[in-house]
Design brief:
heterodimer; A: mainly alpha; MetI-like fold; 0% strand; globular; disordered C terminus; B: 309 residues; mainly alpha; 12 helices; MetI-like (chain B); cell membrane (chain B); MetI-like_sf (chain B)
Chain lengths: 302, 309
């Protein structure tokens, strides 16, 4: 699977030239130089955009490690004052645990529920299929922010206010429609004949799915799962509204408290920001290659 | 879900395959369906219901059926509704247009083959994973008047000391716009780059042979190929930018002087801080209808999916 992915990734550039025999070398060279964008047209805008992207990250890192009162633009000498302050005094240790818990649970529930729903949409014809699809699409237009008050009442009635479960449910629900649409796209790309041959060999539908389809869904599952994790890690309003006890809050709420403090402690704020950024940036660095293939497979028309 | 529960499973093996598939799809969508009924459909219906009610926790003696009073108040008395709606429109259009243009350019650049492509992609896409609150955090560090970048510019002789971009009504819109662009452009770039992977190489080669230059190939092959992806991405992003309150709530708090209050922010203030839930529900309903109407018009005008089927 990973080999197939690698081919697909590099296919745009290296594929043809590697496969072709050498003879038309001269012609190809001329063709390529005619085709190619001049290097400076590539590197100059890319460089400018990279600066725009990276300076804010650097700025946050700089503020988080330089001692209070320093105006140096180089992160040296370093201090971990701000980190230990935020981690211990401002309870970011607890927020971090809560955020990880919410993120992982949302990832698992979203992926499982979306797999089931996506499989139904990809492989069956049934009466409420079209209404169900329509409901999925329409729900994209419904702002979670505007449903805060009724959602709050529901969770109050379920006695789930101040429990992380309420946030996990809310995140899962609003993550589901897109996840189902994406996953059903991926499943549709797996030829049904593969599964059918597994049934002929005596597998049940479930076993056949696990053995044949699931391994081929890896890029899709990575895309959907990472979406769910990153979104729930980042999302702020549900946690802000449903979790009022401090030891239940998540990282974004903690950051918001730091922003809203009477005299903003910029060093502490930056350190909190770094703590919030590190997990998602790491997850992102690993998945970004799959993200592109994931999207192109999921967005196949039809 | 209205399906009869699976009480007796027929024990005969041969029947299993023909009998289960009829129930199976319903069982499979049941978890998703129930969750969405309970936590999306029901709240939506209750919003519609409360939009016709006077419902205010702090003034319980006035609670009760209100007819269309709330809606009348929105359209005739409420200046803040119109100003926040106007700001929302300005915000959404600015964001979507700039994010699309920059994202398209970025996708075309990192779709080329060059040394360091992988790492460049990872770096330029990375703000995609950053939250609204974290974006606010970062840009507050950059914008603040005492140690933000304006101070270093002033040290170098550009601009003045003490410039605070976020508390000046003249600069706050663009300050917030740049911050949102920083995290929004990668979304478009990722989607468009994904769609670029499926442009057929043969088409480009044929066009090159026929003497089409880079510009013509872009406008006649690449852009038409990307059309559906662009329409869908702009629509989803437009709705998302309209609804999302994280960034503005934490970066500007809707200020200064209500200058950056979007309609959803106004609704949240009315419903949650003002406790006027009936009126907030009516505002929500209006926002929802406007959003739906704009989306349908947009899809019609752009002839989405017109080529297929």
């Amino acid at each position: 699977m990973s080999a197939a992915l690698a081919v697909k990734n590099d296919g745009s550039s290296a594929g043809p030239s590697a496969a072709e025999p050498p003879p038309p070398r001269v012609r190809r060279r001329r063709e390529r130089s005619f085709d190619e964008t001049p290097r400076w047209q590539l590197y100059v805008p890319l460089g400018i955009y990279l600066i725009f992207t990276l300076i804010p990250f650097y700025w946050m890192f700089l503020f988080s490690v330089r001692p209070a009162g320093s105006t140096s633009l180089v992160p040296w000498p370093m201090t971990d004052d701000h980190f230990s302050k935020v981690w211990n005094e401002r309870s970011f240790a607890i927020f971090f645990q809560n955020s990880v818990l919410v993120g992982v649970c949302t990832l698992l529930t979203t992926t499982l529920v979306a797999l089931a729903g996506g499989y139904a949409l990809a492989r069956f014809r049934f009466k409420i299929k079209t209404p169900f699809m329509l409901a999925l699409l329409c729900s994209q237009f419904i702002p979670g922010a505007l449903l805060l008050v009724p959602l709050f009442e529901i969770f109050k009635n379920l006695q789930m206010i101040n429990s992380l479960g309420s946030v996990i449910i809310a995140e899962t629900v609003f993550q589901l429609p897109l996840s189902i649409i994406l996953i059903s796209g991926f499943i549709r790309n797996v030829p049904p004949s593969l599964e059918e041959s597994a049934w002929v060999d005596g597998c049940s539908r479930f076993r056949g799915f696990c053995l044949v389809v699931l391994p081929l869904l890896r890029p899709g599952l990575i895309a959907v799962g990472s979406f769910a994790f990153v979104h729930s890690w980042n999302h702020f309003l549900f946690a802000l509204m449903f979790l009022s006890e401090q030891d239940k809050q998540t990282i974004p709420v903690g950051l918001n408290t730091l922003i809203g403090a009477d005299s903003v402690d910029l060093g502490a704020l930056a350190a909190g920001g770094v703590i919030a950024a590190v997990p998602v940036v790491i997850v992102f660095a690993f998945i970004q290659k799959w993200l592109i293939t994931g999207f192109s497979a999921g967005a196949v028309k039809g | 879900m209205a399906q009869a529960p699976a009480v007796a499973k027929p024990p005969k093996v041969p029947r299993r395959r023909s009998a289960t598939p009829r129930r199976l799809p319903y069982l499979l969508i049941a978890p998703a369906g129930l969750l969405m009924l309970g936590f999306i459909a029901y709240p939506v219906i209750s919003v519609f219901y409360y939009s016709l009610q006077n419902y205010n926790v702090t003034k319980p003696w006035r609670n009760g059926y209100a007819g269309f009073d709330n809606f009348k108040r929105i359209f005739t008395e409420d200046d803040q509704f119109w100003s926040t709606l106007g700001f929302s429109a300005q915000w959404v259009v600015t964001q979507v247009v700039l994010q699309l243009l920059l994202g398209l350019a970025l996708a075309l650049i990192v779709n080329q083959s060059f040394i360091g492509r992988g790492i460049s992609r990872a770096m330029v896409f990375s703000p995609w994973a950053v939250s609204g609150v974290l974006t606010s955090t970062i840009w507050i560090l950059l914008y603040n008047s005492s140690t933000g970048f304006s101070r270093y510019l002033a040290d170098a002789g550009i601009g003045e000391y003490g410039t605070s971009l976020l508390s000046d009504t003249g600069t706050v819109f663009w300050a917030a716009t740049v911050a949102e662009l920083w995290r929004g452009v990668p979304f478009f770039a990722i989607l468009i780059l994904a769609d670029l992977q499926s442009v057929s190489k043969e088409l480009y080669e044929a066009a090159s042979v026929d003497g089409a230059g880079r510009m013509r190939r872009f406008f006649h092959i690449t852009l038409p190929h990307l059309r559906d992806a662009i329409v869908l991405a702009t629509l989803l992003r437009g709705v998302w930018e309209f609804n999302n309150v994280d960034l503005l709530y934490t970066l500007t708090g809707g200020g200064p002087a209500g200058e950056t209050t979007t309609l959803p922010l106004y609704v949240a203030n009315t419903g949650i801080e003002g406790h006027d839930f009936g009126y907030a529900s009516a505002l929500t309903t209006v926002a929802f209808v406007i959003l739906l109407f704009c989306s349908i018009v947009y899809l019609r005008l752009s002839k989405f999916g017109g080529d297929q089927k």
